[in-house]
Structure formats: structure tokens, C-alpha cells
User: Fold these one by one.
Assistant:
Number 1:
Amino acid sequence: MSDARTDTQFSIFLVNKPGVLAQVTGALGEAKLNILAMTLVDSQEHGVLRVVTEDPGAARQVLARLNLPMTETEVLCLDLSNRPGALGDVATVLGQHHVNINYAYCTSGAPGGRTTGIFKVADVKKAMHVLKDSGGGGAKHKEGNVRRVGRR
């Protein structure tokens, strides 16, 4: 684990039919917005697309124009080693300090490279503090979104 930061996650509620995901991801692509991480969960009636982009303000404007129901949530973003046990290390540190993880998802990266973990936690400030101070976790807190994964 290295960099810990908070970011904005958009949860967009999609009708479960062909082309709807393409509409959202296409609009973000046309606006030249890079998706840092995403997950899509479905039910028979609808899906929930959770997405973190490199520019939340611009993403907010693009998504608003699509007129789809959505919410915004502050999430914890961690730059992780792409190795077995990296996600478990974070979960262990947060669990030992009684920070509940509501859900999590990760990007994929090249073996031996870096990946981004997205964590919806009950208390973001406490999680940041715990990860900053944890000797075993090795997370380093940086104010704001100093370094963005995906930009080279």
C-alpha cells in the first residue's frame, strides 16, 4: 500500500437493457474523462454502475446531462501493490481498528505493477487516520488528490 486519498464515486442507476452502459461510458469517453475504477452490479430490473473518474467535477456535468438517477459518495482510494494479499492487508488494518468496509472493488493491473482499491467505509476520516498511522499497512496520507492513478 502506498497512497491513500479520498475521491468522489458516482453511483448511476441504469435500466437493465442493451446500450445503456455504452451511453454512460461513451459520454465519459467523449468528454475525455478517464475512468480510474468501476463496477457494475445488476438485478433483473436495473443495474448500479459505480465509477470513479480522474475529474469528478467534469464527470458530474457529463452525467447530469444524461438525466439518469445517480448519487455521489466519498470513497477511500488506495494505490496498492498488485500482489496476493494486498487487499487483505488493508481489510485487516481497517478491521483491527473497527472501520467497517461496506463494499470494495479494485482495478486490475499488470502483475507486479500497481492497482487501485476503492473502499466505501463507514468512517472515511478514521480510515485515513488508521492507514496513515499503521506501521503494518504502510499507507501514506496525502492531502487532496495529489497523484492520480492512470495519468503518466
Number 2:
Amino acid sequence: MGLEQNPAAKKPKLTALPDEEVHKILPHGHRGNETAFMTQYALEQNVDAIFFITGYHRGFETLRRPMNEREKAEYERAIAKPDYIKQMAKHQEEKPKMQARINAEMEKINAERKAKGQPPRVLEQRHGVYSNAHELGLKWTNPHPPHPPRSFEVKDHLVSKYFRDLVDTLYEDNDKPVPSVNVVLFLAGDEVFDANAKTLLDKYVRFFRGKNRVIRGENEIKGARSSKETQN
């Protein structure tokens, strides 16, 4: 994670439960898949406890599987329709204009932050101009045409069963104590982290009998350097 654009970086291999369907979809790069992948990789290290220290975590979110051949054919037909092509052309034409709007908004924001002695604001770059526009609340005149389904959700109970089986295979069946999985989440002071995101994170750590802590902004980061309030 964090080295996706580095061609020398290699994704590790997962070894446990290779024949399970959930195992097979984990390498596909959706948010939920990535979190599940890293969770399994950590669990496979035969450890006493796991701590994810990160700037993004929403629990498992939703795992997705890739399309089968029938679904691929349906997708290709959908994006070949004249209305879709026309709307996409208008949208592509607007993209550089949206980027200019983003740049102007960021210049304004960072000028205000600099005057207050604050560091520049950093935007999420996962989906480029789309992530940036969404984060800044900028609206498209010609939005992207609705995406036909390109991947399909895996039911939550199947994901839960997979990780219960994984824990059994790695620890319970070998008479080893099951590690807790904990999350320390660093957020900007004004970063959106709504009640639904917190619920998903709470559910994730509860599943693994762990805890989470959300640390916001420079002041909380400095305050968290002390361990005097830590309870084990």
C-alpha cells in the first residue's frame, strides 16, 4: 500500500484458504478488497496483535468480484450505446476545466491556511480529478455517464464466514491465541469521517476483538505522542 505507482513494488502472496472464492477476489483493487487483503496478510504473520496505523480505514466496506463473461458482454453493449458515448464525450471535454477549478480552489484554500500558519491541504488522489472534485464539493456541468456494473458485491455474511474460517485455520486449529486487530486512524482536522464510516470501523475491530482510535489534526497528533493515557 502506498507504492502502487512503483513498478518495483510487489504485492505479497496470500497462502491460507487458496481455494475459497473470497480468497481469489482479494487481489482486485477495490477499497474493501484491499483492506481484506492486508488484514489476511497481517494475520498470516503468526503475531500476538495487529495494529494498522493509517490515514484511511472504513472497516471492510464492500468486497467486490470481477465480472464473468456474460457480465462483460453486457457491459460492452452498455458503453457502446450512442447516448452513453455522447455524454462521455461532453464529460471528457469538461475534465480539464474541472481540474482548473480544483487548482483555483486549492490555491485559495492554501493561501488561507498559510496565513494561519497551517500546512497545505492535501486531497485524496485515488481517483484523481473525481476524488478532488468530490472532496471540494465541486459539481460537474456534464457528469460522467452512469457506470454500468463492472464488479459485483460479495455478501457481508460470506466475508465474515471467510475470516472466521481464516482465524480458525491459522490460530484456533493450531492451539494458538487469536491476535486482536486494532486501528489507529490519523485524519486531518477538517476531514470528513461520518457516523457510517465510524460504525464500519467499529464493526471491523469488534470482529477481531480489537480497538480503534481516531486522531484528528496537529494538536491531537502531538497529544497522542504520550502513552500516559494508554490502557492495555
Number 3:
Amino acid sequence: MTLDFDVAMPVALGIGLAAATGFRVFLPMLVMSAAAYSGHLSLGENFAWLGTPQALIMLAAAAAAEILAYYIPGVDNLLDTLATPAAFVAGTVVTAAVITDLPPMLKWTTAVIAGGGVAGLTQSATALLRAKSTLFTGGMGNALLATGELGGSLLVALLALAAPMIALIVVALFLWLVFRLVRHVTRRSDTSKG
């Protein structure tokens, strides 16, 4: 069985955008909205509202507020608690919005499992990194982490639009590196206690 290119690319695009929502919930949705509004991205008919000027304005305001809030100590950790379920929902929505050529049952199953799953996994990884940063730096390193997440979100969202398969490779590499780093830091912490 071969995977049809016309099906694989929208799925990869959706998963790439979903992963970007794991870094920042609203920024990838803003990028997707801008691409749809400018005619560079086709959305499913139920998601055409994402390409409207109203959605663009709303998502720009939400993205700006989210970006700024992650630079406020204490608020960043609170946001991670709220962003985890929000990233799952946003990942599901962006994935479903760009998958237009699958039957509804398969589309939504893919959106929930792949889109929501990778968004939740990416958000969980960044929340874990922030928790470790807060613990080891007293929150002083969190601004650097917030900047990295912002850059990662924008990079992955734009890369997903330009080269979806490469975006998936970048996300897989990021997740692998994060889990190796967390495992290393946890082992070092356990060794210093013992």
C-alpha cells in the first residue's frame, strides 16, 4: 500500500503546525490564518473562518499576549498548566483545518491522535524544561527558554508551510534532544543527592 502524496502532505503540514502549537498555542494559528488570508493555504470549508480578517486580528492579539506573558516569572509556569490542554485542542484544530481530502472519521482521528498528540507532547516537553529551569536557575533562565520556544514555534510553523516533511524531522529531533537532556539532568540530580 502506498501513501498518496496529496494526502501525506496535508497530514504532515497539520502535524507540523500542531507541533508548533506545543511551543506557543496562538502563534502557529496566526501564521496559518495569515497564510489562508493571503491565499497561500487552503483550509477545509468548516475552517474557512480562520482565514478571515477577524480571525487574523483575534489571533494576533492572543499571540502577542501569550508571548509577553511567558516573560513574566511565575506566570510562565502557570501558563504551562493552562497551555497543555489548550495545545492539544489547538493541535487538533490546525491539523483538521488543513486535512481536506480524507473522510471525516479518518480526518478527525488523525487530527486528534497525531495533531493533538504531538502538540501535547511538545507542550509537555517545554513545560518539563521550564520546570527544570525554574528549579535549577530560580526562574532566571526561563526568559531564555521562552525566547527559544518563541523562535521554535515560528520556525516550525513556517517550515511546516514550506516543507512539511522537514518540519516533522525537526520536531522529532527536538523531542529526542529534550528527553535526552531531561534524562541527563535528572540523573545528575539523583547522583548529587545520593
Number 4:
Amino acid sequence: MTTALVTGASSGLGAEFARQLAARGADLVLVARDREVLEGVAVELRGRYAVAVEVLPADLTVRRQLAKVERRVASTEQPIEVLVNNAGIGLPLASERNDVEVEVAHLRLHVEAAMRLMHAALEPMLQRRHGRIVNVASIAAFMPRSTYGAVKGWLVSFSRWANVRYAGRGVTVTAICPGFVHTRFHERLGLPPGEEGIAGPLWLDADLVVREGLRDAARGKAVSIPSLRYKLIAAVVRLLPASVTARMGERGR
């Protein structure tokens, strides 16, 4: 039976990844900071899909807690076949006004935590000659968008390289790059629904993002951009000067 570990699994895209993987018959290891919320998600998934669900509370910006998750990912006795690096936070775009320690925590979560978990996963996956790593990036990876675009750009770049490097040995690495998704992500930034400055057609549902992302990961794609509208946006953005795309990136949060 396949076991998948999902970070940021208590809500939003992480919870949707957990649901869709469970619906495919995967056992789960759920990682997030809030044990109580994770337990609630676990109860739902066990009851609905009859899969085993392990709860592993951890703050991935805290080195000791991240190490606990690394050990679980690296386990050869209870192997992880699918790793979903989904945990993430957003910050106001005016980086110069953000507390630098908060910016460093943002970097640790999006880059260091993802890198360490991939590093922990790769050796046992390569030994088994089978495994799948999914990194949740963003359409922001393709445009200048403060430190958020920068960290997501790192995820895309590394995923592209790693997929080429390891796919021939049975391990694929896919960066999923959604646009604006209906989750609580923007609410946590203090923006009530309707005040994000983004037109309605640009919003995606979490189930579509995860469904298309998992499909592309199964096909071994290095980069997945859910929905035709965002595929077109990504193609256009690559042709525009940075001064224009940076202004585009100021919309929304």
C-alpha cells in the first residue's frame, strides 16, 4: 500500500491533497502545526476512505521539529512513496517593512524545509527505484513578486533539475504552480473575501488544482500549471519585461 506524507495538511490545498490521495487508496502521514485540527482531518479521512492516517504535528520552521519529520520521511521500515511539500505562508509584498526574522522563517519554510524533506526522501526512494515528490509552488515563480515569488522560483528550478536527474532512476519531482486558489491563505493575510483585488475568473478551486497536479505528477512532468488560463498567463509572462510583470505581481496577495 502506498503511503503519502503531506505537509501543511490541516487545511486548504494540503487537506485536499490528503483527500484525493486517500481516495486513490493511499495511507497518509499528515504534518502541520495544530494537532487538534490534524486529528479532525484524520478522523474524516479514516472514516470516508478506510485508509490508515498518521498524525505528525510539527512546525517546520523549528529545526528540532523539522528533524522529526525528516526522520519519518527517511524511514525504510515505513517507507514514504509520495512526498507532498505543501506547507507555506504568505507575507505582505513590501519586504522592506516586514520583520526580517519573519522573512527568514518564510525562507526556511518554503526552501529549507522542502529541501531537507526532499533530501531525506530521495535516498530511500532511489534505493527502491520508485517514488514521487510533489512541490507546491506558484504561478508567482514566473514573475518578480517579492520574496514569495523568489522562494517559489527556487522550488520550480530545483524540481526541473531533480526530475531530469532522477526520473530515469524511478523518482519523479513535480512543481505544481497554481494561481489564486479558494482557500484560507488570503484570509490569513488579513484580506476578507472580495478584497484581494483579483478578478473572479482568475480564482481556481482546490480540487481542480490538486486533481490536475496529481495527474501531471503521475505523468512525470517537472512543472504542472493547473488550468488553461494560467498556462496562458505563464506563457505570456515569460515574454514581458520584468518592469511589467512586477506590476502585475502587485495585484492580490
